[in-house]
Amino acid sequence: QLDCHPFPHCIIRNFLDSETFVENLQTELLGLNFNEKSNDLYKFKQSDDLKKRKEPHITGLRAALFGRFRSWLGEVLGVELEPTVDISCARYEYTDVLLCHDDELEGRRVAFILYLVPPWQISDGGTLDLYSIDSNFQPQSIVKSLIPSLNTLVLFEVSPVSFHQVSEVLTEDKCRLSLSGWFHGPSLERPPRHIEAPVSRSPHLPRDETVLLEWVNPVYLDISYQEQIQEEFEDSSEIQLKDFLKEEKFREVSEALRVAQIQWTKKGPPNKRCYDVASLDTLPQCVGECWELLRSESFFLLLSNFTGLQLHYLCPADDEDEDKEEDEDPSTPVCCGELRRWSHGGYTLLHDAEAAQAEYALDLVLPFSKWQSEFGGYTCYVANEEDEELLTVYPENNSLALVYRDKETLKFVKHVNHRSSSDSGNSSTCRALYDFSFVYYE
């Protein structure tokens, strides 16, 4: 079965002609050691590369795929495919996922997946979802979902538009076992990467300290306590301030977020992010006032006192900052922010443009929902071009999280998994996490 929509792909059912061979292959694969794989893009278990495995059925399949089948495929495509062997086994179980990406890497020409699954239904999740693209060659929406089926081989051409995902596995009692890899050859030409317009930044709003007295827990307005917070923050570059808002204000905003008719917009594209953003002109009064608090002049000064960063002209400069100011024009502190709603399927991903534009910044997150870490939705900080996780910030009701990051530090929000909705008792309504997310720049 051949199809060019949304990009060229092929489905070959009953790929292997011996049921016994398929069963023995499954047995050999399930006996392998699997490594937990988890980052911004995926969560599943994967074997090591199978190019040197000696098991008879793995060896037989590998020889067939990268021998006669590779030659036939090259003839069909009119492309010289290389003999490079690139194959591994993946196990996807409950809440495992591989989010939207295009598979592009130098030398990859055709991707393949051979499914070795029990009887599978769309309600089990784990579908191979194919995306359409917009005018900027960015993924837009899922237009085709392929349900895994035993002994079915799926092939697709790796290209700048081959955006796809493995949707989250929703069944708790089945394993989505597959063999996958790539046939290598000359890569297709790639159009220039689309660069997103930068997010607009604004200076503080002219609001005096009255707004702090109305909203902020009085303990955080005590100067001596602010000095303690700054000392701790300067040691670790991060802090969580529990019970940050006054209890009555926090309850009022929480309730308004839950019941108000706020207009939400899905934010993409899916190869970079997927979550809902509130339209500011639809915020109820108390939520709008909380938004203004986080943008107010007095709050900029409070953040300066918490962190030692120069986010207000009244913040005393240290010696390094004074030296800097002699060389540079003093800049006006600015911020950008949004009110976000996270529900099942929400995430953000690391991407090249973000790494290229990384700069010194103070991140603020203020959550308004009871949340469990096993749901996902937490923020991970990682070193650029390294797998090392530097810090994980878990959402906590009314706990103000502050993190200062440098140019070599990136962040992502971990995929919100099915547990976030299945934990809601008998209700089919998905649990949601609301948060204010701001970034402040000196």
From TrEMBL:
<feature type="domain" description="Fe2OG dioxygenase">
    <location>
        <begin position="83"/>
        <end position="185"/>
    </location>
</feature>
<dbReference type="InterPro" id="IPR006620">
    <property type="entry name" value="Pro_4_hyd_alph"/>
</dbReference>
<keyword id="KW-0963">Cytoplasm</keyword>
<keyword id="KW-0539">Nucleus</keyword>
<dbReference type="GO" id="GO:0005737">
    <property type="term" value="C:cytoplasm"/>
</dbReference>
<dbReference type="InterPro" id="IPR051842">
    <property type="entry name" value="uS12_prolyl_hydroxylase"/>
</dbReference>
<dbReference type="GO" id="GO:0006449">
    <property type="term" value="P:regulation of translational termination"/>
</dbReference>
<dbReference type="InterPro" id="IPR005123">
    <property type="entry name" value="Oxoglu/Fe-dep_dioxygenase_dom"/>
</dbReference>
<dbReference type="Pfam" id="PF13661">
    <property type="entry name" value="2OG-FeII_Oxy_4"/>
</dbReference>
<keyword id="KW-0479">Metal-binding</keyword>
<comment type="subunit">
    <text>Monomer.</text>
</comment>
<dbReference type="GO" id="GO:0031543">
    <property type="term" value="F:peptidyl-proline dioxygenase activity"/>
</dbReference>
<protein>
    <recommendedName>
        <fullName>Prolyl 3-hydroxylase OGFOD1</fullName>
    </recommendedName>
</protein>
<dbReference type="Pfam" id="PF10637">
    <property type="entry name" value="Ofd1_CTDD"/>
</dbReference>
<keyword id="KW-0847">Vitamin C</keyword>
<dbReference type="InterPro" id="IPR039558">
    <property type="entry name" value="TPA1/OFD1_N"/>
</dbReference>
<comment type="similarity">
    <text>Belongs to the TPA1 family.</text>
</comment>
<dbReference type="GO" id="GO:0031418">
    <property type="term" value="F:L-ascorbic acid binding"/>
</dbReference>
<keyword id="KW-0223">Dioxygenase</keyword>
<dbReference type="InterPro" id="IPR019601">
    <property type="entry name" value="Oxoglutarate/Fe-dep_Oase_C"/>
</dbReference>
<dbReference type="GO" id="GO:0005634">
    <property type="term" value="C:nucleus"/>
</dbReference>
<keyword id="KW-0408">Iron</keyword>
<keyword id="KW-0560">Oxidoreductase</keyword>
<comment type="function">
    <text>Prolyl 3-hydroxylase that catalyzes 3-hydroxylation of 'Pro-62' of small ribosomal subunit uS12 (RPS23), thereby regulating protein translation termination efficiency. Involved in stress granule formation.</text>
</comment>
<dbReference type="GO" id="GO:0005506">
    <property type="term" value="F:iron ion binding"/>
</dbReference>
